[in-house]
Design goal:
Elements (H helix, E strand, L loop, with lengths): L1 H6 L5 E2 L6 E2 L12 E5 L4 H14 L2 E8 L7 H10 L4 E6 L1 H14 L11 H19 L4 E3 L8 H12 L4 E3 L1 H5 L3 H10 L13 E5 L2 E5 L12 H4 L14 E8 L2 E5 L2 E2 L2 H14 L4 E7 L5 E7 L1 H17 L2 H19 L6 H13 L5 E8 L2 E8 L7 H4 L12 H8 L1 H9 L2 H5 L3
Parallel strand pairs: 3-4, 3-6, 4-5, 6-7
Antiparallel strand pairs: 1-2, 8-9, 9-14, 10-11, 10-15, 11-12, 13-14, 15-16
Helix pairs in contact: 2-8, 4-5, 5-6, 10-11, 12-13
Length: 437
């Protein structure tokens, strides 16, 4: 394999028409391939790409669209649009159940949260898309896979990293990175080439969604000094001012860390997520205004809507805490943060992720029970928990008279527990150094 890598290293090559310099071995160059698989969403970037690739690379294009529960698009219309724009074939793959059962189940067990409420919908979606992209590129004998990521984002790292990990012989192109067009130039290109798009100068937002979340970027969102006009931006959730005054209780049943029922009705995980997205969206739950650190070193802002994820993770986290010891919960908190960072940072196939999953699945074997969540004015609060594995013991914890807890032992415990602190303080009084009494 190493011989393959080193024999395929290339010298930097500049495209004279765009000024873009290709420096990585996995970047395909014009004339080296005849067929390209395009990761096609039907949005502005990939629709412009479909035309641009045909013109610039003079190759055939196969459009691949993955159904992961996105709601904004009619995927048959997306497929038809791809064919209208010149795709040789347009494939729509239903991956909803696989996405939920394989990836989102792990996200729930790992309490997915990157830097404050972002449930990692894009990073997890990129794993699913990359896996299927490689499969269909091989099936349709495409030498190259094209994605619609910019040179400043995370997804270029995820797609190119995962694709070349899963099949080192495949190459990639990134037209948005190559052509150097900004959002306004893309809109103008689309108009000039008869490509329909939703974006306008007055409504410049770009969205990326799957069942786990909806990401909004562009316009006022980009500048953290501006207040984003949420009524104009939100697609899944109501602004808090427009949510019901009365709270709603939702009961979620878990088995070994995975949600299996809502309000007593058993459902597939993908259906639970769909249901809670609607229910949570009504109450404005899961709207995250996040300043995040990108893989490439930039600090950016995004508006995330992940109502079902917010509800399920809140419920799971509290139930997990109920059935686990303090030491388990402290270690799990560290594991979860590491899992979230590695998932965000395009490391899904790094061996360490398999080790993290092994621990997470081990601890979640006992996360079985019911969590009751109150939804109200943008908040998802866990208000009740029940589990046969609960470590809560009413006879021990009650403030009422109890013969089970031996209070006679408390004073001796305090004396031993306090020994190190008492000894250190009387050797040196650190309060004097701090200037306090």
């Amino acid at each position: 394999l190493s011989v393959y890598f080193f024999s395929n290293l290339i010298s930097p090559i500049m495209d004279a028409s765009t000024g873009y310099v290709k420096v990585a071995y996995h970047e395909a160059k014009k004339g080296d391939f005849s067929k390209c698989l395009l990761l096609y969403s039907g949005g502005l970037d990939t629709s412009v790409m479909l035309k641009w690739i045909q013109e610039h690379y003079e190759c055939k294009v196969i459009a691949l669209t993955i159904d992961m529960g996105q709601t904004a698009d009619n995927l048959e219309e997306v497929r038809a649009k791809a064919l209208t724009l010149g795709a040789e074939a347009a494939i729509v793959v239903d991956a909803k159940e696989e996405f939920a059962d394989v990836l989102l189940a792990e996200a729930i067990k790992a309490n997915a949260d990157y830097q404050g409420g972002y449930a990692l919908s894009c990073p997890l979606g990129r794993v699913m898309i990359s896996k299927l992209a490689v499969k269909y590129a091989e099936e349709y004998q495409c030498e190259v896979i094209a994605h619609g990521c910019t040179g400043k984002g995370n997804d270029q790292v995820r797609f190119e990293g995962y694709i070349t990990t899963l099949n080192p012989k495949l190459k990639t192109i990134a037209p948005v990175r190559e052509w150097g067009m900004g959002r306004e130039e893309e809109i103008e290109y689309a108009k000039n080439h008869g490509i329909p798009c939703l974006q306008t100068s007055d409504r410049p937002y770009s969205y990326d969604e799957n069942m786990w979340g909806n990401t909004g970027e562009g316009g006022e969102i980009e500048n953290p000094e501006l207040v984003p006009p949420l009524p104009n931006i939100l697609q899944w959730c109501r602004p808090v001012a427009q949510t019901p005054d009365e709270p709603q209780l939702v009961k979620i049943d878990f088995e070994q860390g995975v949600p299996v029922a809502v309000d007593g009705e058993r459902m597939k995980l993908c259906d639970i997520i769909h249901h809670l997205n609607k229910t949570g969206g009504v109450h404005g739950v899961g709207v995250i205004n996040l300043i995040e650190d990108r893989i490439v070193g930039l600090k950016v802002r995004g508006i995330y809507e992940n109502p079902a994820a917010t509800i399920l993770i809140a419920a799971h986290r509290k139930l997990e805490m109920l059935v686990s010891t303090r030491e388990e919960n402290e270690l799990k908190d560290f594991i979860d943060r590491k899992w979230a960072y590695l998932t965000y940072a395009a490391k899904w196939y790094d061996p360490v992720m398999y080790h993290l999953h092994a621990y997470t699945n081990s601890q979640n074997k006992k996360v079985t029970g019911t969590a009751t969540v109150q939804l109200h004015k943008g908040m998802a609060q866990v208000v009740a928990l029940q589990s046969e594995n609960s470590l809560f013991n009413a006879n021990l914890a009650t403030f009422n008279r109890s013969a089970t807890f031996n209070q006679n032992a408390s004073a001796g415990f305090i004396e031993i527990y306090n020994l190190a602190q008492k000894t250190a303080f009387n050797v040196h009084n650190f309060e004097q150094d701090l200037g306090t009494n």
